[in-house]
Amino acid sequence: MTRAAITAVGHFLPDDVMTNADLEKLVDTNDEWIRTRTGIRERRVLWDEDKATSYMATKAAEEVLEKRGIDADEIDAIIVGTVTPDMFFPSTACLVQANIGATNAWGFDVSAACCGFLFSFETGARLVQSGQYEKVLVIGADKMSSIIDYTNRNTCVIFGDGAGAVLIEPDTDGYGLHDSVMHVDGSNWEALCMHGGGSLHPPSHETVDKGWHYLEQEGRTVFKVAVAGMADVSAEVMERNDLTGDDIRYLVPHQANQRIIDATARRMGITMDKVMLNIDRYGNTTAATIPLCLHDWEHQLKRGDNLILAAFGGGFTWGAAYVKWAYDGANVARTKFAAEVAQV
Q1: Is the Cα dihedral 236, 242, 246, 248 positive or negative?
Q2: Annotated catalytic, 99?
Q3: Is 201 a catalytic residue?
Q4: Which listed residue (156, 254, 293, 295) is catalytic?
Q5: Residue from 94, 114, 156, 293 carrying the catalytic annotation
Q6: Quick check: helix, strand or coil at residue 237?
Q7: 172: region left, alpha or beta (phi > 0 left; psi from -120 to 50 alpha)
Q8: How far apart are CA 82 and CA 162, in angstroms?
Q9: How confident is the model over 128-168, as pLDDT tens digits?
């Protein structure tokens, strides 16, 4: 049986750091309030107005190519999960394709909010499993600062900017994606959305005045549904594959909120040392959180490790995937790419 395995991981984070202390100067909040409710200490922000989501996605993709030791023209398809594309069209995937010179690739964007990477990974894996594609680049990237109102303390403290990418290739040794469960429920879409900018409410003086081009969130509603959604679907994937907490090496959760992640770990029966966490340093980077976690923990991952990837986002969207890791991360050469990117 041919599975779809992750064979390389890349990332990009902006240099600029926005701490909780910085936010205290903008809105009525404080470090303790933010850390207690979210677990966030700081987040990265791409302040450069000339650089957008495709810039970050491109940098993450270039690191993947360097680590894997392949040329861009070997890529068959590019899928980008994002809700902050540079523009409605062309897609961010088209821009990345041109930037990296992937002359033989086709691609598209996936709009699934915080599930953007997970849904993109599911899609890319199925392309590989079809037998028609050998190398699929999957990217999660969002410049959330472009749609955040920094006078709204309920949302501005949560989000950051960043990008993560993985390469998916065929595997016949039992490694890669084993199972997944994905859901959407649009009945409560207004709890987490951006009203303006689309065909229903095109940009106008009225939509700008109403603040409809910023993310809007009903925090309590989202928290309640997210806790149940992420926890239940993660447990469901484990049960379907006869896995216990002892079998899991890591939970790789969307970094939405520390309390949501804690609840998911408890539901899965795993201790927090088996949970990938970087929300304290990066905040919620939406579609980028899961691949950023994979990048940060790559050198600790071993061939055969069982991972549960789980996310919940606006839509509502939620899901989980069971992945058996395909390579020893400790053997991956640490490249100079990250240092070079930091100097750009």
Answers
A1: negative
A2: no
A3: no
A4: 254
A5: 114
A6: helix
A7: alpha
A8: 11
A9: 999 999 999 999 999 999 999 999 989 999 999 999 999 99
- Could you tell me which CATH number the domain at 3-174 has? 3.40.47.10
Which residues, 6 or more positions from 200, have their beta carbon under 8 angstroms from its beta carbon?
Answer: none
Record: fold of 178-328: Peroxisomal Thiolase; Chain A, domain 1 (3.40.47)
Location of structure tokens 């070079």: 340
Distances in Å between the alpha carbon of 13 and those of 86, 171, 336? 17, 30, 15
Q: Give pTM, 2 decimals.
A: 0.95
Whether 338 has a pLDDT exceeding 70, the answer reads no
Topology match between the domains 3-174 and 178-328 = yes
> What is the pLDDT, as a whole number, of residue 313?
96
8 Å CB contact between 312 and 115: yes
At residue 334, the pLDDT reads 61
Q: Angle at Cα 79 formed by Cα 274 and Cα 81, nearest 5°?
A: 60
* pLDDT at 341 (0 to 100): 39
Is residue 293 annotated as part of the catalytic site, yes or no? no
Domain edges within the chain: 3-174, 178-328
- Residue among 94, 284, 293, 295 flagged as catalytic: 284
Residues 6 or more apart whose CB falls under 8 angstroms from that of 118 comprise 81, 112, 182, 254, 290, 309, 310, 311, 319, 320, 321
214-241 pLDDT, tens digit each: 999 998 899 999 999 999 999 999 999 9
